[in-house]
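Would you be willing to look carefully at the protein I have copied below?

:::
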Amino acid sequence: MANTSDIRKGLCIRYNNDIYKITEFLHVKPGKGPAFVRTKLKSVTTGKVLDNTFSAGHKIEDVRVETRSYQFLYADGSTYHFMNTDDYNQIALQESALDAPQLLKEGEIVTIMFNTEDSMPLSVDMPASVILEVTHTEPGVKGNTATNATKPATVETGASVNVPLFINEGDKIKIDTEKGNYMERAKE
């Protein structure tokens, strides 16, 4: 058993007869009244996201997890296939288990969390950022750089990302997987 002081991003807890992964949290200590923790929970079985508030000191049932490195092989509709990088065993997961499936390219190494009790995969953690090639974008207008103007660009996985005007087709860009935002142009 854990309590609210143990809450952190990525923690898996048992709540309302389901297993949830904490995606966001905020400890709040108002001037009046008791402290509490606001959380955003994502169900690892259905993918449903819900907001919940725990009062300070509330007991929560955490789920013991084990993480393993897997390589993304390919997607077949809404089923994503991964291979363990240690023993080459393959598993297939539904799209709802992934946080940012549109940024996943073949060969990418991800971390998959497993429940230690029944060895069921719980969620897929993407790397903090990915480097993808821009496959389509409109050319930037010369001289239109006074403001932080952006334009839509399609990357090799098919995802659409807003990028600065100086980015052209064929450029490799670094994308934040948590928010899906452009970070910088990748160094070759």
